[in-house]
Amino acid sequence: MNIVPTSFERIMPDHLQNFAVSIFRKAGMSEMDATLLSDALVDGDLRGVFSHGTRLIEGYLPLLIDRNLNPAPDPKVIGETDNSINVDGDGGLGYFASFMAIRMCVQKAKKTGMAVGITSNHGHFGSAGHYTRKAIEAGCFGLAMSSHHREFSPEQSILKASGASPICMGAPAGDQPPLIIDMATGGNRADEFFNEIPATYFKMLGLGLMSNALGGILSGMVTREETGVGAWKGVNQGAFFLVVDIARLTDMEVFRRQMDDFITSLRKMKPPPGHEHTETPGGLEHERTLSWREEGIPIGEQHLAVLEKAGKEMDVSLPWD
Hints:
It contains ten helices and nine strands. By secondary structure, the protein is an alpha+beta fold. It has a domain at 75-254 and 275-283: 2-Layer Sandwich (Ribosomal Protein S8, Chain: A, domain 1), CATH 3.30.1370.60. The strands form two sheets. It has a seven-stranded mixed sheet, sandwiched between helices. The protein has a two-stranded antiparallel sheet with strand order 1-9. β3 (84-88), α4 and β4 (114-122) form a beta-alpha-beta unit. α1 (13-26) runs antiparallel to α2 (31-46), α4 runs parallel beside α5 and α6 runs antiparallel to α7 (198-217). The longest helix has 20 residues, at 198-217. The radius of gyration is 20 Å and the shape is globular.
């Protein structure tokens, strides 16, 4: 899904953004929330992470229209210290609580050196990279992870235990693209990974279970009576964030220069077999964003069909027709 399609139509980001805003407004969101969510989804498309771009409209609309998630949430801080924040998502999609939490973590980290945040009582929060990049923009190291509500039974294989819990960490550079690793920690190919590369699979499993622990249990997505009765059936996710102000640890200019030297040297190395260029994690997405912002995003046929269907259902015209 995150491979650039061979057959596509280029759509300018602002057209895609305006369409998504109109869709979410029709579903009951405020202008501010619809804009924030649409910004995030178009950002996913711009980076070539189509799985977490505007294709998600297809899954989000039924949750909002059927009121399984709150279309007009009012996230609230329910716990706070000088270097920590706990945000309740009020039954909405996770973007709103998570952007609130990461922005407050950045503010606190700039004052105290580091900060942690958790969010709960919400649905899908999208790509973990959205939140890590907020930390990077402020000259900080960022970590974001999340987990869905998880229940296990003895009949299940441990191969499926991590689910597809996301984790992203990243650090800023100077003139070079920041170093960002943004990944899922499991998914439908767990059996295949285990059979082909068992050592790598167990590392993925470990990362996934840590996401379950921090982005799930710590954030409030527990499995016993503490959960209580949810007001919104679609609530199934929590998140964990860590932000470290790099300037508290070292000279920021020196760090950026050293990161540039490091990333430049890596990008000059021979590419892996079957690839024409060498890129560091996050570099390809950075280059796509710069290019596609000017040229338009290559939206494939299946992706277009998803958007066209949503437009018909919500009586929103396609601004690129």
